[in-house]
Amino acid sequence: MRRLLMLFTEPFAFLGRGTIQYVGSMGASAIFLVLALLKAFRKKQLPKIVQQLYYIGARSTLIILLVGLFTGMVLGLQSYHALVQFGAQGALGTLVALSLVRELGPVLTAIMITARAGSATTAEIGSLRISEQIDALDTMRVDPLRYLISPRITASIISFPLLTAVFDIIGILGGYISGVLLLGANAGTYLYRVQASVEMKDITDGFIKAIVFAVIVSTVCCFEGYFTHMRTDSHGAKAVGLSTTSAVVLSCVLILIADYVVTSILI
Amino acid sequence: MEPFPLIEFKNVTKRFDGRTVLDNVNLRIYEGQITTIIGLSGAGKSVLLKHIIGLIQPDEGTVCLRGKPLSGVRKKDIADTVKQMSYMFQGNALFDSMTVYENIALPLQETTDLSREEIDRRVRTRIEQTELGDSADKFPSELSGGMQKRAALARALVTDPRIVLFDEPTSGQDPVRKNAILSMIAQYQRRFGFTAILVSHEIPDVYFISNRILALYDRTIVFQGAPEDLEKFDHPFMDEVIHSLEGLQEELTGLHSRRQFKVLYQSQMKRKALDQFYVLVVFTLEGLDAIASGMGHEAAQEAIRCMGLAIEKHFGPIGGVSTRLGINEFITMLPYSDMAEAEAILNNFAADIQREDIVNILNGARRRGGEGQCVEIGIKAGLAQGRPTVEVGPVMNAAVEQQKEIARLRCIPDW
Hints:
Chain A is mostly helical. Helix content of chain A is 85%, strand content 0%. Chain A has one domain. In chain B, helix 6 links the parallel strand 7 and strand 8.
């Protein structure tokens, strides 16, 4: 009888346990983020933030330029062929610019930085954790949140919007190359449409999204690495690998969910 | 009156996932001493150490530093007390992306407002003191195990801590390096005057450098006191931990382990007729403390090794079975000799040891511990006769009581 009862209750218990765990880790991440942000304003943080700006921001520029260029080019190519059927190829500049500034720029930039810098951050912090280097910081009275986490989150918040801007500009240039130079759309119309259709609100909304994504990506990647040793499914190097995978997957999923939520609020 | 303890555990209990690791632990650690925590692997020694530095909080009980509890007080107060401590991890925990210099400088850069020049001066001083001058710009992965230990020690000492905790500092090292690391800890402890707390398996080697031993057994502290007192401690811990660990250490002397000695003794007794005699000889190497404090731990180890070789050289070929009995004591069983024969053998041994072996012992120590040092050493020996029907304990005690000096040597400083 008891077994039968458990058969009915177990799925609910499983759901409940999962939910509690999920809510718990959400709360822990939020506290983690707030503490890291507060510690950004402590002494001796600026050099570390600049160092992370170089790593997360400057060293991601090339990949952002490449992805932005080809995204803009493919967008120009596809849009031109669609618009030309309605004789609306003059709207190419509007379509490319608004798509990039409002959606593709922030989302693809965030996903690319997750792949390049986010994964490396999780792996690095996870390795520091399993080799007791974070414990060593604790014993030296060096706050690991201040020393390791805070500069990374701060640098992400600064570099995501900047890289998004780079992505937008180079994407519009890519659209110009494929639409105007390769397919023969009018250059003046393209540039005029870009200038006329993109408003300040579009740009600021794109930057708001970039900042939200920065917070999500940096928090998820740092959190996963920092608590690698708490994983119950594996230990050691394998745990670092799994933490890195879950950080990248979770960041990408959360970027897309947050994109919808932020868009629906801002629109 | 007993001095006031620097660190005190009062009824500390710690559980992980329902499993009790420390159960009602009470201990005292005194300032300026080297205290070693011994116990089997997985007994909770590292957990105990992490309680001291605040990396782990007890589930029950209190950890006090200078009488002030470390738990249940403001975070700032804990930080102020923990400020006096450094921790040397079992795996060193050096930052592998930083050079040795950067590793040592990190605690000063991050926790003090010292100028760059002052930090550089302090770091360079520690690098010189730990003989890492040529490795300052190398990464930890480019260093040998011993050098990594020295780098970790330099980092632990750069903030001038009052207490340094060493978590199995000799793990994974070969016997020579083990001795070198223990020697280094003792040497730096004397030089800098910090309180050292070690977790170690190196029995009896740690006895030479330790003022106090804490024995962790069955989740609690079963003994705390001087190494000499541990020898007399009558508890299952001695058989299960100390003697088995000692057995591993006889690679040093080349003699039998105590366990092997016991087995050989028992098998000899079974073979003997009840009225047949055997003789026990107990040797004591005097002056070992002076060698350890004047020339270092490695020199003391070498003296013990040479003494073991001398005993084995004389008594091995005539069927003698020998083992190390204590820090500076050795015992030999002569199963086929009566008292008169044993006395003759011992007289020969005394003549040889005064002529040649005692010089080898002191020279060996001097080679390891510095040529300029001068100490006096002596060797005592005592005989006693036993029979299979008599317990071995009284025979051993009789041999100790009969001990008289058979050799003595005082080195000349410019020798």
